[in-house]
Specification:
The longest helix has 34 residues, at 382-415. Helix 1 (42-55) packs across helix 5 (85-93), helix 1 (42-55) packs antiparallel against helix 11 and helix 9 packs across helix 10 (227-234). Strand 3 and strand 4 form a beta hairpin. The chain is globular. The strands form 2 sheets. The protein has an 8-stranded mixed sheet. It has helices at 42-55, 59-63, 65-70, 72-81, 85-93, 108-115, 120-140, 160-170, 196-209, 227-234, 246-259, 285-290, 310-322, 347-351, 382-415; strands at residues 5-10, 27-32, 186-189, 192-194, 217-221, 239-243, 265-266, 279-283, 298-302, 326-332, 357-364, 371-378. With 416 residues, it is α/β, with parallel strands linked by helices.
């Protein structure tokens, strides 16, 4: 099956998911391109299959009933093709047009709707949402004015590519979309095929880079397709781990290996308790808890902990705070009913139970209404603070004594 697509779309002012209005005068092209499945070493695909099968035996995975239900069609698709490495390679090559990425990125239903030429609503709807994210990214960087629904006088008149050029000038890493995007459909630009997810990942990477050192050891809980790690890598971070379930782990390994060449992408069955310098590691939830406390400095979670079973999400947060890690959370706080008929957890609410951290940053997430960007920072060790205070006081005393000696020397020079 061919996955290439070129489709002109008219944007919709009445799209309830778009923050910006006054878009109906704009036309954009949705596009998808075919990728060559032979561009990956088939042995690595075999390694991905072996890793998937070992992960899938975990009791923790089997008991995660919420995501087990969401990824059921994906499990069936993978299970049917496990005995043929080449067939699974072909499926992974177009993963974003299948059930594999359902729940954490575009999937079969959205892509099929865009490819249905009689269905103009879906294509226009998706194009409007994606373009809206582009405008929100530009607004967050002060490139264009922020839209005000009370006084909707602002009307965007520029071009997509000019906007992306200005965005590129504001961030210090390459914003080009991944060259391999697995049959996904996005907005055609001079910077590649961009989607809602690529644009959000660019914003998140820019925000994170302002807050943490470039040599930070990062762990992302729930890494989706691996897109956020891809942009963190492009921004210069070189010690990154992802903790996730088997289907996501499979997609991440394939996506990252296709896009990041000559850099280790290590699988869960290669797990090391200590940090692997200059590598990307894909881990199971069990190995997250087995890792040395020093393995990571920063834990990131984007749009996933609230949707986990309550006890699973709470366990993650407890571990993050008890091991004194800096925690970056970008999540919604609606506490809606989940598939298990329990209310979703509220990350902020659980984090406030710990007196070990302070909520250094909290503000609305620019690119997705209802989501909050938070940074929780470990409080300084009081004992270390006391030692520092004594050292500063000692230095001040020395300075005072030196000042008195200098004064006496000046007096001596004046009279003698």
């Amino acid at each position: 099956m061919k996955y290439n697509l070129k489709r002109p779309c008219n944007l919709q002012d009445n799209n309830i998911l778009a923050v910006n209005k006054n878009l109906s005068h704009i036309s954009v092209d949705l596009e998808s391109v075919d990728n060559n499945p032979d561009e990956i070493n088939i042995k690595y695909v075999k390694d991905l299959i072996d890793n998937f099968q070992s992960l899938n035996k975990s009791d923790d995975i089997k008991n995660n009933h919420i995501w087990k239900e969401i990824t059921k069609p994906a499990f069936e698709l993978v299970s049917e093709n496990l005995n043929s490495t080449q067939d699974l390679n072909n499926i992974l090559n177009n993963m974003f047009s299948t059930y594999l990425t359902h729940g954490f990125d575009s999937g079969k239903e959205a892509n099929d709707a865009c490819r249905d030429l009689e269905n103009t609503f879906s294509a226009n709807h998706i194009a409007s949402v994606y373009f809206d994210k582009l405008l929100l990214l530009a607004q967050s960087l002060s490139i264009i004015p922020s839209y005000n629904p009370e006084q909707s006088s602002y009307k965007f008149e520029g071009s997509i590519n000019d906007l992306l050029k200005k965005i590129q000038s504001k961030v210090d890493f390459d914003i080009n979309a991944p060259t391999f995007y697995g049959g996904n459909i996005g907005i055609k630009t001079d910077f590649g095929i961009h989607t809602m997810r690529t644009l959000m990942s660019i914003y998140i990477t820019h925000a994170i880079k302002k807050e943490i050192p470039i040599d930070s050891k990062i762990c992302e809980i729930g890494g989706g397709s691996g897109l956020q790690t891809y942009y963190l890598y492009k921004a210069g971070f070189r010690n990154i781990s992802i903790v996730d379930l088997p289907i996501a782990n499979l997609c991440q390994g394939y996506f990252l290996k296709r896009n990041i060449h000559d850099f280790p992408v290590l699988l869960n069955n290669q797990f090391s308790k200590s940090i692997r310098e200059k590598s990307i590691e894909l881990l199971s939830p069990e190995n997250f808890y087995l890792a040395d406390y020093s393995k990571w400095d920063v834990i990131i979670n984007i749009d996933s902990i609230p949707e986990m079973p309550f006890e699973v999400g709470e366990k993650y947060i407890n571990h993050i705070f008890n091991t004194n890690k800096l925690f970056i959370s970008i999540n919604q706080e609606s506490q809606a009913l989940a598939l298990d008929s329990k209310h979703q957890l509220n990350c902020h609410e659980i984090c406030t139970n710990f007196d070990t951290h302070v909520n250094k940053i909290r503000f609305p997430f620019w690119l997705r209404t209802g989501y909050v960007f938070e940074l929780w920072e470990p409080k300084p060790d009081p004992y270390q603070d006391a030692k520092l205070f004594k050292l500063i006081r000692f230095i001040k005393k020395i300075k005072n004594k030196l000042g008195k000696i200098k004064t006496k020397i000046n007096i001596f020079k004046k009279y003698f």
